[in-house]
């Protein structure tokens, strides 16, 4: 984990750079697709869904949550990605839903800088790194 400062514009600008965004999407998808079949099963997606940190944390420390509630939330999130409801998520579904979630985060953050604790391989961390690389170039 690292502490980064970012705002909604950081996320939007990262997604508008289609080459950079698509590269990150393809890399993450390939990493998650452990059986290399071009589709993500629920099991393959679960780690990614858990990284979304949809539950309250206190300074980065997770609060214990009811296991049944966790299952319901992760099932619901998986269904958001599985647009055609075939039980798997393909690259286009993954890209589309990831983009929607990132836009929702950007809209929620607004355009005032926010200090955040980010997972090292998260899309938000990638967006912050992308912005930093643009600034120093």
TrEMBL record:
Q: Where is the EF-hand domain?
A: 69-104
InterPro entries referenced in this protein's UniProt entry, alphabetically: EF-hand-dom_pair, EF_Hand_1_Ca_BS, EF_hand_dom
Does this UniProt record's set of keywords contain Transmembrane?
A: no
Record bears the keyword Calcium? yes
| Database matches in Gene3D superfamilies | EF-hand
Q: Which UniProt keywords apply?
A: Calcium
Kindly give the PANTHER family that the UniProt entry links to this protein: CALCIUM-BINDING EF-HAND FAMILY PROTEIN-RELATED, OS09G0482800 PROTEIN
Q: Under which name does UniProt file this protein?
A: EF-hand domain-containing protein
